[in-house]
Amino acid sequence: MGKRIIQQARGKGSLTYRVRKKAFMHKIAYPSKTGEAEILSLIHSAGHSAPLIKLKIQEHIFYLPAFKGAVVGQKIQINPKAKLEQGNIIPLKEIPTGTKVYNVEKNPGDGGKMMRAAGTSTIISKKNEEKNKVTIAMSKKHEVTLSGNCRAVIGSVAGDGKNLKPFVTAGKKYYKMKARSKLWPRVSAVCVNAVDHPFGSGRGKRIKPKIAQRNASPGQKVGHLRPRRTGKK
């Protein structure tokens, strides 16, 4: 009997591949209240690429990705009529086109789902006030249209250039990836034994196509997924 392939082992959810809960103890979300919030501290979170800021508004504590230039004790505004300053949280319909924003909500009230990685930001490209729709440019070729009631933070996420610093040792990379439950190191399927993977051995790495059924379980979907045809014409 061979071992389970990696996809099956990860899908089972054993302790080996289970995410470390402590790394994701800080949940990113916007508060339901409006007013002035104060930055209490800057936090290093193993589960996030960017540093987080801990904020307090009245008696409510919440966490957001830090913006460039954030300092402890700084005050930010959570108000539709707030000024266009770094860190202020404003609905998209109130933000003029060409403004950089991050931590954008997909649906009003979800707390922010897009543009949260270190150094990222997006630009308000179009506005349709009649339909209450706002379009943001995710890249040069990709745009997303959202409700004007979705909120975002003015500015860009801190931590830009973090990928320029090398890990140097394999041990540092191992613990970083383990904290986020990422598969590392990734071994090529053809490099393992034939009993451990459908692509195993390869007999000189001359891999033959393997066809998986469309309704196969996630652990068995290795190779082509129900191709329309195979072989030469």
Could you explain how this protein is built, in words?
It contains 3 helices and 12 strands. By secondary structure, it is mainly β. It folds into 2 domains: 6-17 and 181-225, no CATH class; 21-74 and 87-163, SH3 type barrels (Roll). Strands 5-10-6-7-8-9 form a 6-stranded antiparallel beta sheet, with no helix packed on it. The longest helix is centred in the last third of the chain and has 10 residues, at 170-179.
Chain-wise SSE layout:
Layout: H1 6-12, E1 35-43, E2 52-57, E3 60-65, E4 75-78, E5 89-91, E6 100-102, E7 122-128, E8 133-137, E9 143-147, E10 151-154, H2 170-179, H3 202-205, E11 211-212, E12 224-225
Parallel strand pairs: 11-12
Antiparallel strand pairs: 1-2, 1-4, 2-3, 5-10, 6-7, 6-10, 7-8, 8-9
Describe the strand arrangement of the main beta sheet, using strand numbers. 5-10-6-7-8-9
Structural class: mainly beta
Shape-level CATH architecture of the largest domain:
Roll
| Total beta-strand segments | 12
Radius of gyration equals 23 Å
What fraction strand?
Answer: 15-25%
Total separate domains: 2
So how many helices?
3
Just give the CATH class of the largest domain: Mainly Beta
CATH topology of the largest domain: SH3 type barrels
* Overall 3D form: globular
The low-confidence parts are none
Which sheet architecture does the biggest sheet show? Answer: 6 strands, antiparallel
- First-residue to last-residue Cα separation: 38 Å
**Average pLDDT score:** 88
Q: What series of H and E elements makes up the topology? A: HEEEEEEEEEEHHEE
Helix content: under 10%
